Structure formats: structure tokens, C-alpha cells
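Priority: medium. Attachment 1 of 2:
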């Protein structure tokens, strides 16, 4: 576990915390867009459409901050569980 600046523990590895961050979410959406583009332009046909449809999965996980494979290794399905809680400034 890693300590956050306010001494609260953050869950997960550095990789899982990155993937739950804004930057990681952008990476997942870009990866999904690349899969869709590859399926439609490089592969083409029915197989290309199937590949493009699979590209929607990383886009959805980035947009909704979900990690469908994390429970396999004991992680959280909801990516926000890896982010430290922020208290509003007063």
C-alpha cells in the first residue's frame, strides 16, 4: 500500500492507480479507438466489424472508470476505489 499526501492508504499497485487516473482513462479510450480504427480500416469485412465492436470495451471502461479484469487478482471492479478521497477546500 502507498500513502497519500494526507497519510491515508491508497489501494492497488501503481499501475492500477494510474489506470484509474484521468491519464489512464484517456489511454484506455485511445486504445479502444485504435482497435476500432484498425478493425474498420486494416482488417475490414465481418472480422473487422467484430474487432471494432471489441474496441468499445476499453472505451467503456475508460469512460465509466471500470476494470472488468481486476476482480481476478483481488482488485476492485470500480476504478475509483484506487483513487484517494479528496476533501473539499474550505
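Attachment 2 of 2:
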Amino acid at each position: 500500500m502507498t500513502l497519500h499526501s494526507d497519510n491515508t492508504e491508497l489501494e492497488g499497485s501503481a499501475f492500477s492507480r494510474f489506470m484509474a487516473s484521468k491519464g489512464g482513462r484517456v489511454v484506455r479510450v485511445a486504445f479502444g479507438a485504435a482497435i476500432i480504427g484498425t478493425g474498420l480500416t486494416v482488417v475490414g469485412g465481418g472480422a473487422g466489424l467484430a474487432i471494432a465492436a471489441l474496441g468499445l470495451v476499453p472505451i467503456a471502461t475508460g469512460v465509466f472508470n471500470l476494470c472488468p479484469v481486476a476482480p481476478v487478482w483481488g482488485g476492485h471492479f470500480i476504478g475509483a476505489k484506487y483513487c484517494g478521497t479528496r476533501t473539499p477546500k474550505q
